[in-house]
Write a structure and sequence with these properties.
Radius of gyration of chain A: 15 Å
Largest interface: A-B, 29 and 30 residues
Oligomer: homodimer
Order of helices and strands of chain A: HHEHHEEH
Helix content of chain A: 40-55%
Structural class of chain A: alpha+beta
Shape of chain A: elongated
Largest sheet of chain A: 3 strands, antiparallel
Strand order of the largest sheet of chain A: 1-3-2
Chain lengths: 97, 97
DNA sequence: CCAATAATTAGATGGCTGTCTAACTATCTT
DNA sequence: AAGATAGTTAGACAGCCATCTAATTATTGG
């Protein structure tokens, strides 16, 4: 697992972005609205999250839509689970059949 | 949840310390041995982990013994689980009956 | 008490990081 | 094509952070 993932999670603004994306795909502008920060600063945070592969992005017209990359989030969960001392193979499913 | 927890996790040395502590309580010296770094630097990392309440410490003679604080690790797990978009109340058990 | 061992604290330093303003690219509309 | 809107890139800067050396505290054993 890449160190960039944890560094990306170290900033509160970026964690809040991820939390907001948990509700579903959102545009850069929609997200930026929620923070008291210039758009370039927000853009920087998006860039860090993208570099860490915590989010995916696609363009739709003038807007750029961001969404969670749950795969990498799963990796983080697994790492933590292991650190825990549990002999994990995988993160368990929320809905066990 | 405190920002310091995530900042503490942002450093690879500190994550490795936590992983080692997953095997059980260890002294500062034992841990320091494993890293190519001066003891003061290691002491700094211990301090950060302690401040974030990710580890607990107790003195035994000349040595200081560190151990995991699983409670805070659980909080991190829960946060991630939520960011995921899962409607979690708690982190699930590893062995679902 | 003195020396040895274990670990921390103090202080300095180089590099990284979050933020800003200004300028730029891309897309849509008229 | 020109203007408006959405977003990024470039460059600067202050503050933070990981690391080091030197000095200090704490404990044990002679």
């Amino acid at each position: 697992m890449n160190n960039e993932v944890f560094k990306a999670l170290a900033d509160p603004t970026r964690r809040e972005i991820l939390r907001l994306l948990g509700r579903g795909e959102q545009s850069a502008g929609q997200l930026a609205q929620r923070f008291d920060m210039t758009k370039p600063s927000m853009s920087h945070h998006f860039s860090v999250l993208k570099q860490a592969e915590l989010v995916h992005s696609r363009r739709e017209g003038q807007q750029i839509l961001y969404s969670l990359n749950t795969t990498v989030l799963e990796d983080v969960l697994t790492w933590l689970w292991d650190a825990f001392g549990h002999d994990t193979k995988a993160v368990p499913s929320r809905k066990p059949s």
